[in-house]
């Protein structure tokens, strides 16, 4: 029997968000695949050197080609076409849109469409409008030409059908994500114990406008808790915007940043924080929420549809548009007037699992290849 060749685009393996998805997908596929398939994993140069797999059915392919580039539409297209794959899995919306062979694509969210304000870009509005046009074009090609679409939640599935048509529903597969077991099994960072002796709350993520961290800062500044808020995320243009808001609120002593957190740092923060606060206006899944639950860290979160779908009975909700309600919920939780819901953690972690996600993804591969 001739092996089926399946390609996986892993060029973003070390990016935040989608990189966690790719790492865990490959980690479990490495354990799951059999001799009926051969995986071709496409990696940037540095990742090609460091990535390793146990399965003899995985072949690394160097593709040192930047996403969102002309080279992606030409050189990457040529490389994929020459490998004559039976099925290609694009793990991110940016892909060679003229790729002619069967493929599936993971659409993690539609935030660039649903929150297209221009504030999420450092580019001039003219260039941002071009970027948005390219995003819409790529996404339209992806949903129409793909053999299947993977989405991390029913909320994202519904958004795809709302934007691009109900007829897509039959080819959209919901594959829930989960806890990044590779990093969260690390020991917690001892070096942070002296730095963070006093009670604190945490936010984990980037500082793009849809994350709504500006509202969180203003709400926390209006709250009466004596605990600190630690904003854990990258140091960039968007974090500088948040620093300006902290200065406006005169909250420099109450709200601090922790940049470049290691996986050991994250374990420390989850296990020592009073709660994770996640005020986002939109998400595809919300990895930090399930990771907090894994570490028995209470969660205060916005009542957006995707969180209502995934975490309805396990987190404390607030209206993300109402700063004063957010502040009240923080105060009520801090005073013990709101008790975190009881959680059947074992069932939840079984439902939201990267291992389960990888098994379902492999089932989609096999179904399309009729294995």
Outline of the structure:
Helices cover 42% and strands 15% of the residues.
Characterize the structure shown:
- With 371 residues, the protein is of the alpha/beta class.
- It folds into 2 domains: 4-178 and 353-369, Rossmann fold; 181-351, Glycogen Phosphorylase B (Rossmann fold, 3-Layer(aba) Sandwich).
- The chain contains 15 helices and 13 strands.
- The chain has helices at residues 18-32, 45-50, 70-82, 111-114, 125-145, 154-164, 181-184, 213-222, 237-248, 263-272, 287-294, 305-311, 323-334, 345-351, 354-369; strands spanning 4-9, 37-43, 58-62, 87-90, 103-106, 148-151, 172-174, 200-204, 228-232, 255-258, 276-278, 299-302, 316-318.
- It has a 7-stranded parallel sheet, sandwiched between helices. A 3-stranded parallel sheet has the order 8-9-10, sandwiched between helices.
- α1 (18-32) crosses α15 and α8 crosses α13 (323-334).
- The protein is globular.
- The mean pLDDT is 93.
Q: Descriptors for this entry?
A:
371 residues; alpha/beta; Rossmann fold; 2 domains; 7-stranded parallel beta sheet; 3-stranded parallel beta sheet
Shape: globular
Radius of gyration over alpha carbons?
21 Å
Mean pLDDT: 93
| CATH architecture label name of the largest domain | 3-Layer(aba) Sandwich
Q: How many DSSP E strands? A: 13
CATH C-level category of the largest domain: Alpha Beta
CATH topology term of the largest domain: Rossmann fold
Main sheet?
7 strands, parallel
Helix and strand sequence = EHEHEHEEHHEHEHEHEHEHEHEHEHHH
* CATH homology superfamily name of the largest domain: Glycogen Phosphorylase B
Distance between the termini: 11 Å
Tell me the number of helical segments per DSSP (H or I, 4 or more residues long): 15
Give the total of domains.
2
- Across the major sheet, the strand order is 3-2-1-4-5-6-7
Oligomer: single chain
Provide the helix percentage: 40-55%
Q: Name the poorly predicted regions.
A: none
Class per helix and strand makeup: alpha/beta
Domain Glycosyl transferase family: 187-333
InterPro entries: Glyco_trans_1 (IPR001296), Glyco_trans_4-like_N (IPR028098)
Domain Glycosyltransferase subfamily 4-like N-terminal: 17-181
Organism: Candidatus Roizmanbacteria bacterium RIFCSPHIGHO2_02_FULL_40_9
